[in-house]
Amino acid sequence: MHELSIALSIIEGVSEEVERLGGVQVTSVRLKLGSLSGVVKDSLLFSYQLACEGTALEGSELIVEETPAMVYCPQCDADQVLTTVQHFHCPRCGAPTPEVLSGREVEVVGMEMIS
Fold first, then answer.
1. CATH number of the domain that residue 92 is part of
2. Measuring CA to CA, how many Å separate 76 from each of 67, 89, 92?
């Protein structure tokens, strides 16, 4: 279950920022999670809550924004959202779309805190 190691990395990074800011209390952490990341959202949410116990982030919420796989279609000369991650073909014209623009993210994009 690599979601636990991801949760621990999130907690470590946010804890460093909390320390840098002077010990504020974090109420939530916002995360972008791409559909191609290989991370199971529910497992990550469970792991986050478990890993937060006994840390400065205990009681905080992990808010996950799921991002779709976006590819560039050379045939259409346009960015397209994949309808399925099993087939990298343009949903409009059916051409192969090997250039992935987004969807691999596992990125902390913000946090809410009180001082």
1. 3.30.2320.80
2. 22, 11, 8
